[in-house]
Specification:
The chain is of the alpha+beta class and 87 residues long. The chain has 4 helices and 3 strands, in the order E-H-H-E-E-H-H. It has a domain of 44 residues: YefM-like fold (3-Layer(aba) Sandwich).
Amino acid sequence: MKTFPSAQVQNQFGAIANIVKTGEPVAVTQYGTPTMMILPYALAEQALRDYHAQQMVRFMDGMPPAHAQAPDLSLEALTQLVHELRP
């Protein structure tokens, strides 16, 4: 991964974009501190999917456990129940 100061990225965006298009991420610094990354589109899409999946896992882990007497529904039965309850 290459690293460039933000001023250089602003002044030479086309050249930096060409580096990213080859599949290489670019780190951008401000005053010597990395503040962001420019990623190839496919890599960024996958990173977002992974991030959202992790967020969902954290959310689900925070949910209370199912009541012991709750019915054990199949996916099909759950889908049917959701459709029946929709207005």
